[in-house]
Design brief:
four-stranded antiparallel β-sheet; mainly beta; Immunoglobulin-like
């Protein structure tokens, strides 16, 4: 299934890696544009049973998500040193 990762709050120029089952699928710099609350959108192909990993090297942060349903959108926020992921079937809204 095709999914979109929406990186929103808390990013200030960190290099982010997106991995699926341990294989790097994307690497980019994320910086939140607070006028619209968006840092980056990354399309990714996922299958139920996959493990989606989001990694930041400096400062170090990571999160692993087991794909258990066909949600099309994942909203990722950074708060302090932690990454938070919300799964949703609805396209996030931006100004």
């Amino acid at each position: 299934m095709n999914a979109e990762l929406h990186f929103q709050d808390g990013f200030s120029g960190e290099t982010v890696e997106v991995l699926v089952n341990g294989e790097v699928k994307a690497s980019f710099v994320a910086k939140t544009r607070y006028q619209i609350n968006l840092a980056h959108i990354e399309p990714v192909s996922l299958t139920i049973g996959d493990t989606l990993s989001i990694r930041i090297k400096e400062p170090p942060a990571s999160v692993d998500i087991k794909i258990e349903s066909d949600h099309a959108y994942y909203v990722i926020s950074k708060r302090g040193q932690a990454l938070f992921v919300e799964r949703t079937g609805d396209l996030p809204k931006y100004m």
